[in-house]
Amino acid sequence: MNDKILFNLLLTIINKNIIFILVVSSSIIFIIGLVCILITRKNIILILIGIEIMLISLNFFFLLCSIYLDDFLGYFFNFFILTVAAAEAAIGLAILILFYRLKQSIELDFTNNIKG
């Protein structure tokens, strides 16, 4: 009886530590996406990739919270974030094609456009 209680206690401690490690890794992935956006301000493809990385890390975080709290709300948020990510990718690529047709380049160079 005592061995079973100790085993269950050890299992819950391990599960909480694994959830904490996965939440920290989700935060690190989000920070990588944010750094990708902030460092590469001139390349529109890398900005879109950074946004996608951030949305994926949010999906991962909501799934972890849903598993930890034993709730289905995280799965619904995951579904809506996936639809937003798909729409963002489609609209972003359409804007990229239009931008390339107008400028003949995909680099965002705001300093040449500023007149003052």
Kindly state the mean pLDDT as a whole number? 82
Going by CATH, the architecture would be Orthogonal Bundle
For the largest beta-sheet, the strand count, sense and barrel status come to: none
β-sheet strand percentage:
under 5%
Percent helix: over 70%
Described by its quaternary structure, the protein is: single chain
CATH fold annotation: Helix Hairpins
How many strand segments?
A: 0
Name the poorly predicted regions: none
SS-based structural class? mainly alpha
Series of H and E elements: HHHH
Cα shape? elongated
How far do the termini sit from each other?
Answer: 80 Å
Which CATH C-level class is it?
Answer: Mainly Alpha
- Number of distinct helices: 4
Radius of gyration: 21 Å
Counting structural domains, the number is: 1
What does this protein look like?
This protein has helices at residues 2-39, 44-69, 73-103, 110-113. With 116 residues, it is mainly α. The protein has a single domain, classed as Helix Hairpins (Orthogonal Bundle), CATH 1.10.287. It is elongated, with a radius of gyration of 21 Å.
